[in-house]
């Protein structure tokens, strides 16, 4: 009996020691990870940086010389028919761009709002178009002809236009999401571009009057007249604007990556649409990479 009690006492001591050791196990102290978690990083604050990239310029010259042809043919029977001619067409140009940006982020939990200003310089970004059109305008509305006479206005137009975007500034609002080291964002805002725009057109108009008569045998004969120059509508007009400031709007997408501390890199796409200047519409597609620092 005495031996049995001694064995029970020893087993109780060993069990108590094991229970004390179990409390030191890591799994019981909560040291096991609860799973993957997002890196905590603050995007709040002011920032500044620079960027460079590639631009595609799409310029629509379809209506560029309409104002000039309307002036040449003003108060004449040719203004209506010639105003519908699409003498020029769209054209594209490509070039590099570089510039800088400055802005301020405000962060609420995972949401980030920003206000950002940018400057972009375009390297030799110039698009142009030229065209030629000839038409025989017969008895246009409003024209008066003698009986049996058909008026043929042999009209030729030759024109050209160009637009070079030099640089631009934008004011953009951004909406981003805190993805830890990454911040995807989208933006929209206003743009002002500086351009050189030109257009010119030359007209040549000759009037040929064909007469229809009946001979002694009752045959109808058409006598083709000799073309005569219409001096008032045969001229050259041109217009050129240097450093014209043109308003527009901008929108796009991008992503930033925190490299170290406040240093970050960005990649973005930007679409820019400018208001027409001298009936020429310019659209830009910009792709950029940049490097910045958040204070």
Give an account of the 3D structure:
The structure is a single chain. By secondary structure, the chain is mainly beta. It has one domain (43-294). Helices cover 11% and strands 62% of the residues. The chain contains 3 helices and 10 strands. The protein has helices spanning 2-22, 66-72, 79-83; strands spanning 45-60, 90-108, 111-138, 149-177, 182-214, 220-223, 228-229, 236-260, 263-274, 281-294. Strands 1-2-3-4-5-8-9-10 form an 8-stranded antiparallel beta barrel. A hairpin with a 2-residue loop joins strand 2 (90-108) and strand 3. The radius of gyration is 38 Å and the shape is rod-shaped.
TL;DR of this structure?
This protein is mainly β and 295 residues long. The chain has helices spanning 2-22, 66-72, 79-83; strands at residues 45-60, 90-108, 111-138, 149-177, 182-214, 220-223, 228-229, 236-260, 263-274, 281-294.
Indicate the proportion of strand residues: over 45%
Query: What is the string of SSEs from the N terminus onward?
Result: HEHHEEEEEEEEE
Count of beta strands: 10
Uncertain parts: 1-38
**Distance from first to last alpha carbon:** 80 Å
Shape: rod-shaped
Counting DSSP H or I runs of 4 or more residues, the number of helices is 3
Q: Main beta sheet: strand number and arrangement?
A: 8 strands, antiparallel, barrel
Based on secondary structure, the structural category is mainly beta
Strand order of the largest sheet: 1-2-3-4-5-8-9-10
Question: What percent of the residues sit in helical stretches (DSSP H or I)?
Answer: 10-25%
């Amino acid at each position: 009996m005495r031996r049995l009690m001694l064995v029970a006492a020893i087993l109780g001591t060993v069990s108590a020691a094991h229970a004390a050791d179990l409390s030191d196990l890591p799994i019981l102290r909560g040291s096991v990870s609860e799973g993957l978690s997002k890196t905590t990083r603050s995007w709040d604050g002011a920032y500044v940086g620079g960027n460079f990239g590639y631009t595609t310029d799409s310029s629509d010259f379809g209506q560029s010389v309409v104002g000039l042809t309307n002036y040449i043919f003003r108060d004449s029977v040719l203004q209506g028919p010639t105003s519908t001619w699409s003498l020029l067409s769209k054209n594209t140009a490509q070039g590099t761009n570089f510039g800088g940006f400055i802005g301020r982020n405000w962060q609420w939990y995972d949401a980030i709002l920003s206000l950002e200003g940018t400057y972009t310089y375009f390297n030799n970004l110039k698009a142009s178009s030229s065209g030629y059109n000839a038409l025989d305008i017969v008895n246009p509305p409003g024209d008066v002809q003698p009986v049996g006479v058909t008026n043929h206005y042999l009209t030729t137009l030759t024109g050209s236009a160009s637009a070079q975007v030099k640089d631009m500034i934008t004011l953009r609002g951004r909406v981003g999401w805190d993805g830890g080291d990454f911040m995807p964002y989208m933006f929209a805002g206003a743009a002002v571009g500086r351009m050189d725009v030109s257009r010119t057109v030359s007209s040549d108009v000759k009037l040929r009057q064909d007469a229809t008569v009946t001979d002694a045998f009752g045959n109808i004969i058409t006598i083709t007249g000799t073309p005569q120059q219409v001096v008032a509508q045969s001229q050259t007009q041109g217009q050129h604007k240097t450093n014209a400031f043109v308003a527009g709007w901008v929108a796009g997408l991008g992503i930033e990556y925190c490299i170290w501390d406040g240093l970050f890199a960005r990649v973005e796409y930007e679409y820019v649409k400018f208001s027409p200047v001298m009936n020429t519409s310019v659209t830009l597609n910009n792709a950029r990479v940049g490097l910045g620092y958040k204070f």
